[in-house]
Amino acid sequence: ACSAFSQKSCDECLKNVSCLWCYTNNTCIDYPVRSILPPSSLCSLSNARWGVCWINFEALIIAMAVVAGLILVSITVCCCYCCYCRRRSRSRLNDEEEQLARKREERRLQSLQRKHERKLKHDEIRKKYGLLQDSDNPYSRFENE
Known about the structure:
- This protein has helices at 10-13, 57-128, and strands at residues 19-22, 27-30, 48-49.
- The protein is mostly helical.
- The chain folds into 2 domains: 2-55; 58-131.
- A 3-stranded antiparallel β-sheet has the order 2-1-3, with no helix packed on it.
- The longest helix is centred in the middle third of the chain and has 72 residues, at 57-128.
- The termini are far apart.
C-alpha cells in the first residue's frame, strides 16, 4: 500500500507507479485511477507529484499538453505541405505533358509538311523527265520499243 511510504521521502513513494506524493502534508497516497486528475480535496495539483519528484503535477500536465500540441501541429503542417506539394507536382507534370504533346504535334506537322514538299519536288522531277504516270490511269500498259 502507498500509505506505508507516508512521512518518508518522495523518491521512495514514487518508486511504485500507482502512488502519488503530496507535499502539503508529506503523504504518499494511492493514485485515484477513476479520475484522470487527482481532486483538489485530495491534494492540490501544484503540490502533487507523480512519476518524478522534481516536477509537480500541474507542470507535468502543461508540459505534456504542449508536447502533444506541438506533435499535432507538426503532423498537420506536414500533411498540408505534402498535399500542397503533391498537387503542385501533379499540375507541373500535367503542364509538362501538355507541352510535350504540343511539341510532338508540331514536329509531326512539320514532318508531314516536309514530306509533302519532297513529294511535290519529286513529282516535278518525274514530270520533267517524263517519268510521271498519268494520274487518271495509274495502271498503264508497259510498252517495249
